[in-house]
Amino acid sequence: MFMQFRFIIVQVVFILFLQAVFSQLAKDYEVTTVLKEKFFDKSGAPLTGKGVVIGDVDSGIDVFHPLFFFADGGEFSWTDVNGDGVLTFGTDGIDINGNGSIDKVEVLRYIDMLNSTWGLLPDGMSGKYNSVYDFIYIDANGNNKRDFGPDKGFKETDPCFGEMMLIPVNYNKDNSIKAGEKLLGLKTSKIRSVLQRDGIIRRRGIDMIQCEQDSSGHGTGVAGLIIGGYAGNQYFHGIAPEAEMIFSSVQYDYTPRFVRNFPDLFNFLKDEKVNIVLLEDGEWMYEFMDGSSPEEEILNEMARSGTTIIGGAGNFTGSNMLILDTLRSGNEITYTASAPYMSDWKKNDGVFFSFLWPNTETEIKITLQTPDNNTASFTSGEGKITAGKYNIFYAKEVSPKGTTMFRFGCSTKDSQEVKGIWKFKLVSNGDAYLRAYVVDVSQSWAGYSRWKNSDKISDASNVCFPSTADSCMAIGAYTVNFGWGINDIVGDICDYSSVGYNITGKLGIDITAPGHSTLSAAKNNSYQVFSGTSSAAPHVVGAAALLLQYDMTLTHAQIKQILHNTAAQDNFTGTIPNHVWGYGKLNTENAIRYLMNK
Description:
It is built from 7 helices and 29 strands. The chain is of the alpha+beta class and 598 residues long. It folds into 3 domains: 14-65 and 193-316 and 466-596, CATH 3.40.50.200; 71-187, no CATH class; 322-452, Sandwich (Jelly Rolls), CATH 2.60.120.1290. Strand 21 (390-398) and strand 22 form a beta hairpin. Helix 2 runs parallel beside helix 5, helix 3 packs parallel to helix 4 and helix 5 (533-550) packs parallel to helix 7. The longest helix is centred in the C-terminal third of the chain and has 18 residues, at 533-550. The radius of gyration is 26 Å and the shape is elongated.
């Protein structure tokens, strides 16, 4: 849900963010993906998500990130060459060839991971090994850097697709590895398969080493929260670090529908027989929002077959891109939208509108006024007209559930910016509950093009597609660790988190989970602050994976009921369920105990 990979990245007022961070540097932050208790499955094995396969509709994945390999490469003793009692990088090593000495190609070094977490990870010093988050590797090429990937001559069968990486067997906080302490080798990718944006499928054991890069880093952040790292061996790890993931990578179009191949993305995950589907994209333009689309029906079918469906509700609140109003028969009302010259650092050469009302009997006449004050009226049909210097594409459609949509796409005849004021005058022949959406080519949550000068601009009901599917558990986000401004309170709902009832009357939010500020992986050997309902939904996915490891017979409906029944209530949530918090805050430990005691 990232809108440039919006699969749920939120634009932040940077100065407020820095103020919030630096005012709390002394605080001990919570790693939201590490449980406070240890739990075991029926065989006595730790609950780590082992045996569970998660499908993610997202931006892709950095398959080379150290957090995304299993620690199944064997246990190694290392040689203390200089006899100082601690592992000295660049000197000590592992006697791979058994000749009794450490050759140049057996020397151990470490990956100096980039810590871009504003204090969520304990501070480290670049150029000095930090056991909290750095990784060790065998410098087989002897060039003082970790080499990996096909460009460096490595094959699919090579551990970690490159020079072998290792971690200490026992995590400690003194940033040293003592003589006698052993190392675990990383080997097998946690990523089973990837449907790339170009349609090529990459598979572990065949050609995963050739996988395309994560287009924005969003999928990498999501994966870090779910399957990253190694429980018991590192400071940070995902909720279900021994689960596996499959990715359906989204390719955005320039105009809506911005994602037109959702059926292909969902069917790939269905064919791969995933246990959980995670929806990390949020749409609203040219969508009926009533759960009736073919892709939502695919999700419903998967849920009926037992697959758990979870999605971020969206980061729509505060965007001024939605109007909710009740039209009265014969009354005339005008809505006004403004479109900027630039939108998310690009020329804004397209703005789009859709009007929804949940019946087919009511007819609404819509008169559009362009920024150059030309007008055109519409009551039905589809096509293209010219109004002044603008091209107007329009269509009226009805969903299988009876929701009427009138949509408009507006551009200039010479592909210039659509800057200015757009007005829509509506007259209805009957009462109608109206939703009016706007967005531009930025596809951004920020609402660059937005409604203005109306008391009907609303955030009361703004859960995004495809989490509007009847089967989907839609997840809201609340603030943890530190907020982004003076009004952003730890423990309270994130001010961007989508809320409300859907157009069908269904409660739009199921539960909430940590949104910002959470710790996760980032592309290119990095850690990052990860945020939004894109962060919240993976926490719920991780919880579902632990429940499934304990009982693989659990259905979508049963997991949903467990998470609802065990969600936490506090002073922020108030009485639950409600339209902001759903059934409350995710409580993974309560959910596991509930299942164990059934």
